[in-house]
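ARCHIVE RECORD
Type: protein–small molecule complex
Small molecule: manganese (II) ion
Source of inputs: curated submission
Record status: active
Notes field left blank by submitter.
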Amino acid sequence: MADMPTEVSWSPASWRAKPIAQDVEYPDAAHLSKVLSKLGTLPPLVTASEIERLRHQLALVQRNEAFLLHAGDCAESFDACTHENLSAKIGLILSFSLILIWGARLPVVRIGRIAGQYAKPRSSKTEKIGDREVLSFRGDNVNGLDPNDRTPDPERLLSAYFHSTATLNYVRGLLTSGFASLHHPRDWSLAHVRSPALRMEFEAIVDGLSDALDFSRTIGVESTASAAFEQGGARSTVGEVDFYTSHEGLMLEYEQALTRAFAIPRSQAQAKGAEKAFYNTSAHFLWIGDRTRQLTGAHVEYFRGIRNPIGVKVGPSMQGEELVRLLGIVDPLKEPGRVTLITRYGAGKIEDHLAGHIAAVQRSGHPVVWICDPMHGNTETSASGLKTRHFGTIIRELTACLRIHAACDSRLGGVSLEFTGEMNDAGFSVTECVGGSMELSEAELGLRYQSFCDPRLNFEQSLDVAFLVSNYFKK
Ligand code: PEP
Ligand code: MN
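STRUCTURE (tokenized, with ligand):
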């Protein structure tokens, strides 16, 4: 079959022979190739053993033994690579996951949309700004937001690598220097939560956690974290947490340049029938976007050959049979934890599609992780012209998703969110999505709208979602 290339050999460059959706045309091919050669010599951002560890943990999510939180900005920008922004983002991810762990009594696998989430797919190649038609902004690793800076510049790929490196370096520092310690959750910017009810709920968890940690310390079991969760790599202890990076694998030239062959663990090598595998070392987890998931396209070709766990966005235009064929290409060995399906239908469409997709995947026997992205099918334009999302609509898709999985003898393994813990100097959160416990109105959107891409939930709205999910899974 034309879309079943599993017999055909794969190389990090084999995608080049296929049609490339969302391709970027560089005016200077020699310049691009010089940059790509340089990228090809730079060190990996993440290691093969970290990637293996994430694969193992996602297999636990698939078996309902852990929950996946995938979250961060729609797109990162080079200018937002500051210590305030990064600490706020990590603080929110940690707070969110703590609420889930406390309620659901399950480990949480945290994957940030961070340290490389620069490229954006666009519905149109050009856009009208004033009376000019200019190339669309494709993300900081391609061109500039400034309408006078829209020509794709290969140097931006190098800059993306170095901004990813700086981000990851700071995140690794935060996670190993006590910031992530469960003993100090109040450091994660709780000071800024203005809603008294939300604050009280979070404080109650923190108090309960402190008691539990004191108790563990007293009886001497502090470092006996779940053995199953810890397999497959270095151990982390209570007080430190695992954290993984991800981005949409859109710019295949960049992804290819950071793809490297490494030995795979002996236990896995047997199943794979090979000693080495190709790892994308630019992030632990990469996903294929809803606009680039064509069965015979370049992105699916590239993704089928990498050893990283991958995500696939699944929107309302995906057919059940198409989804199963796609899984046959990217997961021929039916490996638990290899594929995460990120569904994003929209609150008005989920009822028409999700149950059919679940049934098709169940029949196929592919052991996927299902997570809900209640953001991308629910973007609207407000009366003032700002792109927004309504908290109520986001919750409607999320609760429908939980209900439909339960009714189909399946289970929602996690959520994929666009959120930010960013605050202004006075400690106020961004105002990009309407509603939530802070009851943000449409009229308030303009107050602190900072996203240059999709609207994100702010700190308080994100904690609202965390409590909802946590209460659903409460044991
Ligand atoms: C995204 O996750 O930012 C995105 C563009 O999503 P999708 O491919 O689902 O539209
Ligand atoms: Mn987005």
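CURATOR ANNOTATION: The first strand starts at residue 67 and ends at 72.
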